[in-house]
Amino acid sequence: MDTHFGADSSPPPSRWRKVAYGGMQPGYDDNHTDETFLEDMVMNANVVKRNMLKVMQDSVSISQYLCIVALVVLVWIYTLRSTLNENSLLLLDVSLLGSGFIILVLTEEMLSLKRLLNYVLNVSFFTTGLFVLAPIYQTLTRSISSDSIWAVTISLLLLHLFLHDYSGSTIRPSGALKNPNLTSCISLNASIVASVFIASRLPSRVHVFATMLFSLQIFLFAPLVTYCIKKYSFRLHLLFSLGLMAVTLTFVYSLHCLLFVLLVGMLIFVNVVCPYWLIRIQEYKFEINGPWDEAKLCFDITD
Amino acid sequence: MVSDFFYPNFGGVENHIYYLSQCLLKLGHKVVVLTHAYGNRSGVRYMTGGLKVYYVPWRPFLMQNTFPTIYGTFPIIRTILLREKISLVHGHQAFSTLCHETLMHSRTMGYKVVFTDHSLYGFADVGSIHMNKVLQFTLADVTRAICVSHTSKENTVLRSGLPPEKVFVIPNAVDTAMFKPAQVRLGRDEIVIVVISRLVYRKGADLLVEVIPEVCRLYPNVRFVVGGDGPKRVRLEEMREKHSLQDRVEMLGAVPHASVRSVLVSGHIFLNSSLTEAFCIAILEAASCGLLTVSTRVGGVPEVLPDDMIVLAEPDPSDMVHAIRKAISILPNIDPQVMHDRMKRLYNWNDVAERTEIVYNRALKCSDQSLLERLSRYLSCGAWAGKLFCMVMIIDFLIWRLLELLQPAKDIEEVPDVALPCHQHGERIEHVFH
User: B382 — contact with chain A (CB < 8 Å)?
Assistant: First the structure.
């Protein structure tokens, strides 16, 4: 039996500890909220502060690709109207192929004969295959009305633009790390199907071959070429895009006034309105991190 | 107790509900469990101690959850609540659609409601965002909430916007009578590391693939026993082949719950590599069997055991190897029986039940609220979501009134209380519907 003189008070309650064992902590309820509550929470740790100019420069990739697609559609319209005949189209194809090749070679860091040979071999396989299959494409949609073809093509092109991978390239140069994801494969397929539909409306086999070659080489290789240019020099990329935009706008103006206005509106929306909007809504971003997060593995899982 | 997850499934939530119900029955309360039918197991069943379980005949449609019909469950739940003379409803697990629906209907009918959250969720991916919104809806009007660890409390408060004073932290416990250390102490010349978990990404199976070969290389006298099955088992088998560790890594496949103890007592160290855990019961079971635990420092794991019974490591292979080295070095100081006796004092289901009873008493003391007061809480959930939730609750209220008209409460016959011999002396304080 203890005899306490004077001190009648209970011993001071021990400090609350953030532990689960040992039952209820004496002197504290189970719903006790300590000052250390949520002290490990980190807010907006990974949020990048965006600069308006940088965002506008980055949006140039999107408008550049929009202009490329607009040019392709222009060539299709001219071919369908027989303004452009098959020989000039073939010339266009060869020159585009050649210039793309030269750009790839010039901007490639690791230039090797084996790589060059690899490219040449792939391109020749591809061209031969197209030439052989051209008669099939010609009769593919004979039973479908033209209106359905235009409607399907336009919707496929819109799908292609929505799902396109604007930051990289689906066809990657050998040795690139990122694998293409599902949406970029879907967009590529949509564009290829659209080109097949348009090519099937053309009168002769050479027309079909030339148009298919043109469309496919743009849709498959243009992202790769623009990606190489961007990697090589950002200023060159900006100049190239501005030149491309100017060329596209001139051609579309000479074609149809309404389309011109539409294209100008799209370009302004993509380049000016969207960056401003993005920066405005960045303020609402609220990212929460803390000890409850699932741990991220620091190594890649290679199967 | 309401949840989609109950016996015959085995898991953290299922065991929690079962043990908690048994201890509450011992304290003299009446406990009824509501869950969905499992295969042929449908209707009313009685389990140990007179625990009545309603297996309502709905089929699970996705990951053991019933199909969410929002109002379709109202009639049967109302019937069960009135028949069993329930006074309080306790829902488990945020991922259970049955739990959310039952809590919503119980609130409409005016019952007091308690919710226990057993898992941690993120904030960033699409699934989590939707889950958190649903949770916000359910918890906007819950009377009290329980979380299984302090980290889980922080996570739940952030996800649902509940005031922290409404959330109680009551951890899980372990049945120490079932998890006893081996009769004969194991020899120390060969060290056996045991891993028992589902072999999925979330439980860190990829970390195991990196850690096991390294440890086997550094310590020739270490052997691994891996129990459990899952999609990542193939990777572990490949790792075993690649490093020729067939005699040093034993893969047991899926271990039934009854054999977990025998697997655990064959080892010295228990390795847990999960990437996220609100509260890891596996660690408790291992500690109760006298094993030293090595675990990743994620979620609520640092709160579970005192520092001398667990070695923590970052979820990084080199850090885990380092932790295993430290564990091997302190292994001679570990006495399994001493550890088991300590665990008996640290974790106890009866203690959990008593603390839960305190939460129930607090909940029952809360004042009743009219529909209008409750609607104002739902409105604060968000600009669009708040109005949607209010609409949902108003329709729920109207359906309740309709059900009252069609099947009045006085027509529903109440279940007589069956007095089982072992509960003769228990005063019926209240009838609790879990």
Answer: no
What length does chain A have? 303
Nearest to B333, CA basis, from B301, B309, B307 = B309
Task: List pLDDT tens digits, range A38-54.
Answer: 888 888 888 888 888 88
Q: Quick: pLDDT tens for A206-263.
A: 888 999 999 999 998 888 888 888 888 889 999 999 999 999 999 999 988 999 999 9
pTM summary value: 0.80
In chain A, alpha helices (H): 52-80, 86-107, 113-138, 146-163, 182-199, 205-232, 234-255, 257-268, 274-282
A294: closest chain B residue by CA:
B276
Determine contact, residues B13/B5, Cβ cutoff 8 Å: yes
d(CA A214, CA A219): 9
Beta strands in B118-218 (DSSP E): 144-147, 167-169, 191-196
Distances (CA, A) of B48 to A42, B21, B105, B261, B432: 46, 10, 29, 21, 17
Give the C-alpha separation, B323 to B301, whole Å: 15
Query: What is the percentage of chain A residues whose pLDDT exceeds 90?
Result: 35
Q: What is the phi/psi pair of residue B428, to 5°?
A: -80, 100
Whether ipTM > 0.90 holds is no
- Of the pLDDT bands very low, low, confident and very high (cuts 50, 70, 90), residue B227 is very high
Q: Among residues B299, B310, B239, which one has the least CA distance to residue B269?
A: B310
| Backbone region of residue B328 per phi and psi (left: phi > 0; alpha: psi in -120 to 50; beta: other values) | alpha
Number of Cα atoms under 13 Å in the Cβ half of residue A88? 7
Average pLDDT for B136-143: 89
- Block residue for tokens 């140990």: B48
Q: Does B366 touch chain A (CB under 8 A)?
A: no
pLDDT above 80: residue A170: no
List, in order, residues 6 or more apart from B5 with CB less than 8 Å away.
Answer: B11, B13, B14, B17, B35, B64, B92, B93, B96
Q: Say how far apart CA A86 and CA B190 lie, in whole Å.
A: 80
Residues 400-419 of B with CB under 8 A from A: none
Say how far residue A78 (Cα) sits from the centre of its chain. 28
- In 10 A of CB A3, how many CB atoms? 4
Cα–Cα distances (Å) from B144 to A168, B24, B96, B113, B166, in that order, read 51, 18, 18, 7, 5
Measured in angstroms, the CA of A45 and the nearest CA of chain B are apart by 13
Question: Which residues, at least 6 apart from A263, have a Cβ–Cβ distance to it below 8 Å?
Answer: A66, A70, A248, A249, A252
A5: pLDDT strictly greater than 60: no
Nearest to A294 among B165, B275, B348 (CB): B275
- Residues B415-423 have a mean pLDDT of 66
**A303 pLDDT band (50/70/90 cuts)?**
low
B315 close to A (CB below 8 A): yes
- In B101-160, the residues whose Cβ lies within 8 Å of chain A are 120, 122-124, 148-152, 154-155, 157-158
Contacts of A302 in chain B (CB under 8 A): none
Burial of A71: CB neighbours in 10 Å, binned 0-12, 13-18, 19+: middle
Asked if residue A222 lies in contact with residue A215, where contact means CB atoms within 8 angstroms, the answer is no
pLDDT number for residue A6: 46
pLDDT tens digits along B262-298 = 999 999 999 999 999 888 899 999 999 999 999 999 9
pLDDT, tens digit, for every residue of B310-354?
999 999 899 999 999 999 999 988 889 999 999 999 999 999 999
Torsion over CA: B30, B34, B39, B42 (sign)? positive
**Closest by alpha carbon to B137, among B432, B381, B396?**
B381
